[in-house]
Amino acid sequence: MEEMETKLCSSKNEEAFEREAPYCMGEIDFTASGKKRGKFIKVLSTIHPEVIFEVMLNKWKLPAPNLVVSLVGEEENFQMKPWLRDTLKKGLIKAAQSTDAWIFTSALRVGITRHLVQAVRDHALASTSSRARVVAVGITSLRRTQHREILDNTKNESLVHYQSDENIQGPLYSLDHNHSHFILVDHVTLDEPDRTTKLRLNLEKHISEQRTGYGGTGSIEIPVLCLLVNGGPGTLQRICSGLENSAPWLILEGSGGTSDILAAFMNDPQLITPETVEKQFKEKFPAESFLWKDILHWTATIQTIISHQHLLTLHNFEQDSSEELDTVILKALVKACKSHSQEAQEYLDELKLAVAWNRVDIAKSEIFNGNVEWKSCDLEEVMMDALVNDKPEFVKLFIDNGANMAEFLTYSRLQRLYCSISQKCLLYELLLKKHEESKLTLAGQQLKKQQEVCPLFTLSEVSRVLKDFLHDACKGFYQDLRQGGKKKTDKKNTKRLPGPLDMNQKSENPWRDLFVWAVLQNRHKMANYFWAMGQEGVASALAACKILKEMSRLETETEVAHIMKEAKYEQLAV
Q1: 10 Å Cβ neighbour count for 564?
Q2: The pTM is what?
Q3: Are 137 and 120 in contact (CB under 8 A)?
Q4: N or C, which end of the chain has less CB nearby within 10 Å?
């Protein structure tokens, strides 16, 4: 009886959820646009943002982003300055591509969104790589959408033929066909206020609480940054709502409108009075008139915004074009994270982002700038990220700022490094062969039973690969000769045979072990650094020559084999 009640309760909950948050999906074919189809989901304004995010990942098959840039600004047509067009066309698209970001817009063919997605289109036309595609997600209310009757009548998994109108003056606008995806928001009742902005805020908040797929580890929450370009008076309330979610904002000074009003007050908050606000509004919005009660309201709103200085970053690309937009974005995220803290842990997420974006310059200037005392244990996770992803400059930076490789490199971590190698490299094939051979032995049968909890490759298999290359020169690699081995007795002497390694034991020679690991993967820049840090220069260089000579014979990729032959380790041995 209890089980039946549970099922009935569950069924009612599911039905209630469907009533509250139904959605339908499909594709939009933009007639005569010459553009490929865009995917869409149509949702009620009451839908939970988790449902939308799951659709994006599991139905649309979008990889989890390393960054979400939410574009906020002018939603009417305006004349864009050349420098601003270049910032969007080159800077934002480059930043989105280099960081695997999603860009959120208002979806409609008007205002700042129209200018941005034209840049997305130009980028797509100029690029031949599918990996270079920029994910632009338009989020809009059906109430603002031209030809909404076509979208109202759609069924799930349907194809919608949609004609974009070029010269519409509002209040309804066409969907902009340069988006890759659309979230179309319907309303529960006709008299319901437009809740699209609230839904978008909730979605951005939900995403900011999820983990990235960076490095396959999901080690950091997805940063969501709001980018303010121009903007009307109503944008101020949107900014306030975003700040309540602790979202950092990058304000493009010089882009006009609200951006310039905030820029005028950010450096001197004491200037925020009703009189100065009124002057700014009349200057920036000359075609509009404001009641005094409106001015008082906007004054209080601006004061609230400016009080969140640590979440606000101001940048004028017209006057200072020396920095790329992705650099400015990361600095804004770092600023929001730091908030005057001097604890190393407060900086770790931004440091992981700097590694993910491969921006060692920002890590040096914004994170390792002498304000924080780093301990070796603080840097263990990012050190592993830098090693796995072949970022020797970060490895050196971490060593220079307190990381202790002798403390870091246990045999367990070294084994994890070998388990992380690319399946496309020769070393993977060689280790896989040794792994298969292990299964044929009695000990291997036991290993097979433990396969679910054990790494794919073991250091024992690594030592056997090295033995094929170096023969007796690598005798004893990754075997414990001090304890756990069996004694072998003959008439002349007693020997202790190698036993299994204690995986928690620290490497006896971390620089040598990392040097060999890098050489086996053909990572010469990383290998050269480890060689320089080690104490066995001549022996290590000669071993590398021997390894690469043998591997170049086995390598089927001509270019890779050539790189192996070009490696000048014999010069290091001189």
Answers
A1: 22
A2: 0.73
A3: no
A4: N
